[in-house]
Amino acid sequence: MDWVTNLSPSPDGLALAVAGGSFHRPGMVQLLDLATGQERGRYETRANTVSAAVFTRDGKTLIAATAPPISPVTSPRHGGVYRWEVSTGQELPPLR
To answer: Virtual CA dihedral for 59, 33, 5, 89, nearest 10 degrees?
Structure first.
């Protein structure tokens, strides 16, 4: 990750979602264990910048919003909303 745009603690206080981006790689959210500092998960997007990430109240789902890419040749050219199940890392269907 070349830059960090957002930090979001999990509802139970045991994890931290670190959102950010990169010029040449997909944007991502890293899930860090606050007790050990170890990475618990990594969630990638198709855009190059994740502008915000937040947990649902129950902590079971991580939601991230992407910003339009910095590079004009990168696709997609619009922002989006992504969701993942925290326990499995599986991407969930987009919100409608």
So the answer is: -60
